[in-house]
Request: fold
Amino acid sequence: MNNNKQKFHFIAIGGIGMSGLAKYLLESGCEVSGSDIAQSKYTKKLESLGAKIYIGHNADYVEEGMIVVASTAIRPDNPEIVKAKKLNLQICHRSDILKLISEGYGKDKKPVFLGFSGTHGKTTTSGLCTYILTKAGLQPSFCVGGIIPELDTNAASCDGDFFVAELDESDGTIVKYSPDVSVINNLETDHVDFYKDGFQELLDTFRVHLSNMKNGSKIIINNDCPGTKKLIEQNSQKEFITFGLQNACYTAQNISMNGTASSFDVIHNGQKLGRLDLSIPGKHNIYNALAVLAALNEQGVDFEKIAPHFKTFTGMGRRFQLSAEFDGIKVIDDYAHHPSEIKTTLESAKNCPHKRLVAIFQPHRYSRLQGLWNDFLCAFNAADKLFVLDIYAASEDAIAGVSSEKFVQTLQSDAKYISGSIEEAAKKIAPELKNGDFVISLGAGDITKIGKEIENCYKAGV
Reply:
């Protein structure tokens, strides 16, 4: 696949990852079409760039000469998959397309590939890295899993020397990539639907990823995380460049935290590189900034050239993002859907002014709630009040005995089960909020809409 005038057809093109790949290919001169069950801001954007967008799934959308792109979530009986097989077309997983792009598809030369992975923070680190390089005038190409502030996009094909991407470990496809710099933020048990044999299976997958990297490539890894420490121990023949708060190649020292802001000195092998200021909250974002700084410093990007831009980064879409504000009530939307992410987000929120910290949680996938049940039970301790919505199934079927209602019954805290759609849930939650509440909506599903829905209900007196 080296002709950048090829035709690509994406099934479920409106997803954040798929839409980014489609946009990149459009900007590289390819013909792109795609289908999805509903129109979205992503499909509208692609249409404005020249993509042919279909709503609904139909075999007629697939034609001779196309390369069909699908994700793990697309089922074998999808009519477009069935038609593609009938026509003997090439069917690619979305990871195959990202691999193709990372190898320089549509470019005169292969870019330096910076890949960001890990259980938590890969969208923020890949987005932050892209933002920093762009603001520094280095014109990176990128495909990341969220909308980058100011750039207002999740992907672009540009003329610089770097390609930045978020690498997904959820379905094992991280083994396909061979980045020049692989940044591993952290590792923890997740995606129990795929890693059925537990955490060691995830470590084994990352071992394959590391073994696929070419000589001269660099591995930037968190030295404070128990999971990544195990990866280091089990791959002692590899050379790791570590980051952390102490005992690492790159450390953050003299940390100062004030509400949603922080600042710290960056120390590299005992030498101070300089001080970084952040406008995004929490200790986890100090780790994120260190990871990005280490990756760029290892590639010879001048510290003074990039340091000022860390402060102006306001966070990725759906990462501690203000979604509504009314009558002394703030609603923050956050993508956190793993127990550790939820715990970290709520701890960060405690530093913000509030009378009550209110969490609204939409569990994401039956398998995740079932597999991490006990961890979820301990994730909400920082919240004064918790509302739990129905499970967002994603592509899964229901699992007997796993429900939000049962989860709330098990919780030893001030929690309340809220049934129904997002609109129905907003009507039930709005009357329970008070002036001074700091509300966090948590989840990877359609809970992102609830802030505005609550605001509308609250103002209407529903």
The longest helix spans residues 283-298. The chain has three domains: 7-94, 111-312, 321-460. The mean pLDDT is 95. The first strand starts at residue 7 and ends at 11.
